[in-house]
Write a structure and sequence with these properties.
Number of helices: 17
Strand order of the largest sheet: 1-2-3-4-5-6-7-8
Largest sheet: 8 strands, parallel, barrel
Strand content: 5-15%
Radius of gyration: 21 Å
Structural class: alpha/beta
CATH architecture: Alpha-Beta Barrel
Order of helices and strands: HEHHEHHHEHEHEHEHHHHEHEHHH
CATH superfamily: Aldolase class I
Helix content: 55-70%
Shape: globular
CATH class: Alpha Beta
Distance between the termini: 58 Å
Number of domains: 1
CATH topology: TIM Barrel
């Protein structure tokens, strides 16, 4: 199905760096990776300077790899071991140290963008995904420990997460809402944001200092839908391979435009509130037969964030073709894709529920692995091993 897109003047110039073009189109480029090594070697600062990176996201898998692969954590872990700190508190100290450092590296971006970008995300323990009160308590603790205005606390968009999101925003905590797959749940996320901002206004918080992004996961949708389409095996099913994720995200942006043009939002904006930007997450392409930049170039429009693993960032810099706005004007085509999927027998509601359940489970598994890696390092360094 054809894609309607608007071209910009810069997108036609092949001499312009694709990352620069993407940034000029209004897409905030964030790196989906962070480690103490990146910070200590100024690699993150280099990416900010050379690759238009204006934000960073983290997750348990990223931290697990960083802590296991680098000696830069040894001194801190040894001190924590000597003090007899338990593994969960040690992990909290280690990760907030890195995030605080990254916030400081990105602080000039935060200041230059008037607080829009220059953000760093840290995740609430994913084992709390179905516990509202404990999620809120952990978010408060992380916000206090990092103590930087350009922090985002990541809270999953589970049913239990929604009231936690609203409460944290009401208290003045900026939130990155993660693990969004469905349009219905995305609507609930935006409702939680508006509710939280309204309560924050009543409480007297400065709304200009509050921010949020809604992380809408992309590639995993194609992975699950393509698996089901391949089982069907029909010619019509094959024509839909690799189309669901982009269509789903484009329709999410359409809903974003609808919500953030209401009188309710206009009232908040008049008090200094900023819209909750859509963030495209999971933008690394899983199927090698697909263009490795498709979840960036096909989801380009002003006012969104795209958080990329470094290979995607490098692929875009090397051979990405930024064609201007590829979302606005493509809603009818996106809806046609979703209708065709339904006609083919794909239950999208089931797809997104499976993805949410798997997402929480994967994050819990990664967190357990991160705890185990930290426990091993505490044990090793407590014995004085090098």
């Amino acid at each position: 199905m054809a894609t309607t897109a608007q071209s910009s003047s810069t997108s036609a110039d092949p001499s312009v760096d694709p990352l620069r073009r993407l940034s000029e189109e209004g897409v905030a480029i964030w790196l989906d990776d962070m480690s103490r090594g990146r910070l200590a070697t100024d690699n993150l600062a280099d990416l900010i300077r050379d690759k238009y990176v204006v934000g960073v996201t983290t997750n348990p898998t990223i931290f697990q790899k960083a802590i296991s692969d680098s000696e830069l954590y040894d001194r801190q872990v040894r001190d924590l071991a000597i003090r007899g700190v338990d593994v969960e508190e040690a992990l909290r100290m280690i990760t907030t140290f890195d995030v605080r450092w990254a916030c400081d590296v990105l602080r000039p971006v935060y200041d230059a963008s008037d607080g829009v970008d220059g953000r760093v995300s840290i995740e609430v323990d994913p084992r709390l995904a179905h516990e509202t009160d404990r999620t809120i308590a952990e978010a408060r603790q992380l916000w206090w420990l990092v103590d930087r205005p350009n922090l985002f606390v990541k809270i999953p968009a589970t049913k239990a997460g929604l009231p936690a999101i609203a409460q944290c925003i009401a208290e003045g905590i900026s939130v990155n809402v993660t693990l969004i797959f469905s349009l219905e749940r995305y609507g609930a996320v935006m409702e939680a944001y508006l509710d939280g901002m309204e309560r924050a206004r009543v409480a007297g918080h400065d709304l200009t200092n509050l921010a949020s992004v809604a992380s809408f996961f992309v590639s995993r949708v194609d992975t699950e839908v393509d698996k089901r389409l391949s089982k069907l095996g029909s010619a019509d099913a094959k024509k839909l391979l690799g189309k669901a994720a982009i269509a789903n995200a484009r329709l999410a942006f359409q809903r974003y435009e609808q919500v953030f043009s209401t009188d309710r939002w206009t009232s908040l904006a008049g008090a200094g509130a900023r819209p909750q930007r859509p963030l495209w997450a999971s933008t690394g392409v899983k199927d090698p037969s697909y263009d490795d930049t498709m979840y960036v170039v096909e989801l380009t429009t002003r006012g969104v964030v795209n958080t990329m693993p470094e290979p995607t960032l490098e692929a875009l810099a090397d051979h990405g073709v930024v064609r201007g706005d590829t979302i606005r004007g493509a809603y009818a085509d996106a809806q046609a894709v979703m209708s065709a999927l339904a006609d083919a027998g794909i239950d999208v509601d089931d797809v997104v529920q499976v993805l949410e359940d798997e997402g929480v489970e994967k994050f819990e598994t990664s967190w357990s692995e991160l705890l185990e890696s930290t426990r091993k390092e505490l044990t090793r360094l407590a014995k004085g091993d090098s």
